[in-house]
Amino acid sequence: MLIKHLRYLLTITGSFFCLSPILVAQNSLSYKLKESAVYAGIEVGSKGVKMSLIEVKKDLQKNSSFIVLKDTAVNTDFISFTQTSFQATLSGFTGLYKTALNKFNIDAGKIFTVVSSGVKVQAQKSGKMRWVNNLIDSFRSAINDSAKEIEVVDVLQEARLSHIGIVPESRRFSTFLIDIGSGNTKGGYFPNDDIHEFKLFQLSWGTKSTVNATEKRLDADKSVENFNRQLAAVIDGSASDEIIYAINYSGAYDMNDNIAFSGGIAWSVATLTNPELIDNPVIPVTYEDVEKFYKSLLANNAALSELGITGAITDPTINKEYVAAEVQRVNKVFDQWSLLAGTALLLKIMRQFEGVYEKKQFYLVKNGQVGWISAYVNQHIVPE
Amino acid sequence: MRNSRSNARKIIPLIILLIAFATAATWAYYQFFKEDEIVPDKDLITLYPIGYDTTNNTTAATPGRDSLKKEYAASVQRMDSRYLTAKPVSEPERKLLAVKFKEVDQLKTEISTILKNRDDNEGLAIANRKIKELQKKVDELTGKNSEVEKENKEIYSMLKRFSNERPAAGTDQKIIAIPVVYETRPATESWQVAHKTESKPLSFPPATETNRLPALATDIFETSNLQLSALTLLDNNKELETYQADHTDKFSGSFTLRNNVSRDRLGEIMVVLQGPDGSVLQKSNWESGTFETGDGKKIYSSKIVFNARRGEPNQISFSLNVNKCATGKYSMMIYLKGKLIGKLDKKLS
Question: What is this structure's pTM?
Answer without folding.
Answer: 0.61
